[in-house]
Amino acid sequence: MHKTCLEDTVAAHIIEFKERYYRLAYSYVKNSEDAMDIVQESIYKAFSSLDSLENPSYIKTWFYRIVVNTSVDILRKRKREILSNETFLSSIDEGEYDSYENFDLKTALDGLPENYRTIIILRYFEDLKLQEIADVLNENVNTVKTRLYAGLKKLRIAMDEKNEEVLI
To answer: Can you give the residue ranges of the RNA polymerase sigma-70 region domain (predicted)?
Structure first.
């Protein structure tokens, strides 16, 4: 595919699914400004590495992978900043947090380890198939299945504990 045509195809795809990519980024950073930064950085990375997209029919998984990797990079960078300078911690401005109602499911989902949370979000909130998730995360599909079911089990346990607390 000609580079200009590929650029147009990628741009159209990103515009069409921008809300999904924003939601995915937001699920990592819990902050609208950081999520927008992740999407913007992901778009820059995508256009900088168009040659890595070998087959245009894989734009969806290719761009999801870029967003996931960019989100993880931002979180790692943030952790290093916090760990490297504890006294600076109180003066860090992480932007204005979006206001949302605190649902038990969201709280339980946020409590899951990142590798389980990512798979659950991609499967149930972004409606990706298991093979697509495996492609995005560069994992074996059986690993994805195992983590999905283990994550759902942990999520169910966390939800049951929340429900027990309400009943007490």
So the answer is: 18-80
